[in-house]
Amino acid sequence: QVQLVESGGGLVQAGGSLRLSCAASGSIFGINAMGWYRQAPGKQRELVAIITSGGVTNYAQSVKGRFTISRDNAKNTVFMQMNSLKAEDTAVYYCNIVVGAVRTYWGQGTQVTVSS
């Protein structure tokens, strides 16, 4: 059993900051990529940021320069620091991990609401 527990979402004014965390637990050996996705109402889920086991990162163009993804491999935890938040960042944010070659797991989602 693998569990992903997310925290850090909430309501913030435009220009503010939030930090998301996602801790993975259970039968996990060899986590490869860890990432964050988001889904706004009426839209498809989209990749926000991803980080490999070697620390290589990739970001959606819309968040480059504002969001920073990081991970603590010893604690199987991934973080995302979100600065200069905009109303269009409002969405449910989902943590995702890839274990081995093909096993993928999702968190339950955490709501981020940015008021303008």
Supply the helix-strand structural class: mainly beta
Largest sheet report: 7 strands, mixed
Low-pLDDT windows of residues: none
- The termini sit apart by 40 Å
| Integer average pLDDT | 96
Range of helix content: under 10%
Number of DSSP strand runs: 11
Produce the secondary structure layout.
Blueprint lengths: L1 E6 L2 E4 L4 E9 L4 E9 L6 E6 L5 E3 L7 E6 L4 E6 L8 E9 L3 E4 L3 E6 L1
Parallel strand pairs: 2-11
Antiparallel strand pairs: 1-3, 3-8, 4-5, 4-9, 5-6, 7-8, 9-10, 9-11
Structural features, described:
The strands form 2 sheets. Strands 2, 4, 5, 6, 9, 10 and 11 form a 7-stranded mixed beta sheet that branches. The protein is mainly beta. It contains no helices and 11 strands. It has strands at residues 2-7, 10-13, 18-26, 31-39, 46-51, 57-59, 67-72, 77-82, 91-99, 103-106, 110-115.
Quick recap of the structure?
By secondary structure, the chain is an all-beta fold. It is 0% helix and 59% strand.
